[in-house]
Structures are given as structure tokens and as C-alpha cells.
């Protein structure tokens, strides 16, 4: 099994510590899950229209706070995946939970987006439609992708 793992991925796909790098689609999905943080930082950067931006994207203020909380696991995984090291067993263990925690976060984000649709009384909104489509795609990607499983796995060294 270890030999198949080595043959499947090239040397360039590993980081300096020998861990398989996370695929770009996983990084983009994590950024999607942390979108509340991006909106919050963008609104803070534009001081005059910041409150207006937040009210457009998050009509209910509590959904912004919930979105910020739900974006934390993605931010933590983006930070910890770069800190993986052979000696840091606790970081490697936390990162190995990444797929399941990210999948749970995707489900929670789907529920939050459906709540946004409910707040708009079912009226079509491009932002909600695109976010729902991307979240569904990301959930399918997390479930099906072997590279995501392998990149978040703790490698067994023989």
C-alpha cells in the first residue's frame, strides 16, 4: 500500500517535510468556507461603505457571526497544514481530521445559505445560487477525491 502511495504522487507534489501538499481545489474550497472572513475584512477596509456591504451580503447580522465561526476551521486548517512536521504529532493528528471537519462545515454552510434563501422568501439571488452550487460541488469533491484523503492523512513511515 505504501508503494502505491509513492508511485501515485510525484516528488514535486510533496512539501519539504515529505507530506503530500493539499490540492489547489481544497485550498479554494477552504477559502470559500471562509468567505465571511473575506467579506468582514473587505468591509472593514472600506470604512465608509463597510456597513452597507455587510448588510447586502449578510442581511441578518447573526448570520455574519455564525459565518465567521464556521469559517474558523478552514482558516485553522490552512494555517496548520503548513506547520506539519514529523515531530509535531498533534498538528498532524488535527490535520488528519480535516476532511471530516471540512465536510461538516460545508453542510453547516449549506444550511446557512438555505437560511439566507428563506430570509429572502425564496426569491432567486445569484449570490446564493452560486454559493449553493459551489458548496455542493465542494462536498462532492471532498467525498470523492483521493488526493484530499491522501494529503490530509498522517503518512506511515517504514
Automatic annotation (TrEMBL):
InterPro entries per record: DUF2919
UniProt KW keywords: Membrane, Transmembrane, Transmembrane helix
Protein name per its UniProtKB record: DUF2919 domain-containing protein
Listed transmembrane segments: 24-43, 63-82, 94-117, 123-143
Signal peptide location: none
Record-linked Pfam families: DUF2919
Species: Vibrio amylolyticus
